[in-house]
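> tool_call: predict_assembly(chains=four)
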Amino acid sequence: MNGLTISQIAKGSNVNIETVRYYEKRGLISEPPRTESGYRMFPKEVIQDIQFIKRAQDIGFTLEEIKKLLCASNNENFQSEEMYQFANNKIQEIDSKIHEFIQMKSLLEELAAKCPGSGVPKDQCPIITNLSKGEIEDG
Amino acid sequence: MNGLTISQIAKGSNVNIETVRYYEKRGLISEPPRTESGYRMFPKEVIQDIQFIKRAQDIGFTLEEIKKLLCASNNENFQSEEMYQFANNKIQEIDSKIHEFIQMKSLLEELAAKCPGSGVPKDQCPIITNLSKGEIEDG
DNA sequence: CTTGACCCTGTAGTTGGGTACAGACTCTAT
DNA sequence: ATAGAGTCTGTACCCAACTACAGGGTCAAG
């Protein structure tokens, strides 16, 4: 029996060992085969899976949502309808988040450009006034 | 003394009352004046502030980071240098998150397009294979 | 055949961001 | 003057997502 140990997986996907076990317990990665003595031996693809989980998480997916995506791949009775709904909802959310990101980014760019780094008095810094406006101009 | 009560603020910014007090305790919004009997009377701008907090949070800023931005506006000894650093770091983060969003979005769009909603067998749904690839083509 | 690195299970603790009372005061309308 | 809605402080609880042990087994090197 070959494969990767849990610490190799952890190192390879840059999370800690406990997190790998946690994801297994939560059902995000499937239970790997074990050696006779009970050690987990992971297929190397698990590293990619965990990296995907991390990226998805990074952009605001919860572990439950990520599980939903990943679990479908192991489900013979996979119902496409539900996935379709889910995907479309998520696309909406992503669109508005991208919009907010772009707004926030231009706010921060303005700040960086006009507060050039040393002792500029705060009332000359545009971020403060912009922030309190609550709405950044749309473009 | 006029202004808005805490429940008007909560309703107006679509959070609950406890959250308004919580933000005050955390220093995200400044302590409002009080009536003689101790009731908070908020300037109406607080609604915008809370909406800003919520949007910023939505795109992954922590309350501490948001506080950093908002607090600067009340700080006479505001040091622009730190803000400049902060803004530039955040711009980097935002850029890579936007990138990830766009990848995820096209993944979901593919899914939605090719799993048109009823009983499509899972092995014809591209999301599953794409997901396990771990990396979506760049473009 | 022991030492040290690695692995196991299980349970408890932590952090971030709220949310829910309890017990008491205030304000408005009747 | 009293009911009912609103507010106050303070403490406790909650959920997601980890993270850290404790107590014990495994394995390769010397």
